[in-house]
Amino acid sequence: MGGYRCVLGQPPSDLFARIGGEEFSVVLPETKPQEATRLIERILEDVTRAHLEYENKQIALSFSAGITEYYDGATLDELVRHADVALYESKAQGRSKVSLNLITNPATNLLNKQESDEY
């Protein structure tokens, strides 16, 4: 990740970073996906309530977000791809939404399928 970094607060391992263009990443290593969703929804509420003034005109602010969860063995590219799927779901719902895309370890899924096929 490049660009600007700032710590979100508690815990100190949380990270917000610009990853390019209009895309940002929030890394919350000690936060469960549902808690992360609630946090991003609260940030979205704050952002949509705020207004930016430019040349005497009010500009409404918003964003859409996609959330995923790290699983053992996941690469950064895989995590970004899973988060992108959730982001596109948010945009399909009309923007200014937060979506969650939980993908478990593909190796675990394969093992679970093989076990269920045996019974």
Précis, in short:
By secondary structure, the protein is α+β, with helices and mostly antiparallel strands.
Please describe the structure with a list of short key phrases separated by commas or semicolons.
7 strands, 3 helices, 2 domains, Alpha-Beta Plaits, three-stranded antiparallel sheet, 119 residues, disordered N terminus, alpha+beta
Write the layout of secondary structure elements.
Blueprint (H helix, E strand, L loop, with lengths): L4 E2 L8 E6 L2 E5 L5 H17 L1 E4 L2 E4 L4 E3 L8 H17 L5 E3 L5 H13 L1
Parallel strand pairs: 6-7
Antiparallel strand pairs: 1-2, 2-3, 4-5
Give structural notes.
With 119 residues, this protein is α+β, with helices and mostly antiparallel strands. It folds into two domains: 1-30, no CATH class; 33-118, Reverse transcriptase/Diguanylate cyclase domain (Alpha-Beta Plaits), CATH 3.30.70. 39% of the residues lie in helices and 23% in strands. The protein is built from three helices and seven strands; from the N terminus they run βββαβββαβα. The strands form three sheets. It has a three-stranded antiparallel β-sheet with strand order 1-2-3, with no helix packed on it. The protein has a two-stranded antiparallel ribbon with strand order 4-5. Strand 1 (5-6) and strand 2 (15-20) form a beta hairpin. The chain is elongated. It starts with a strand and ends with a helix.
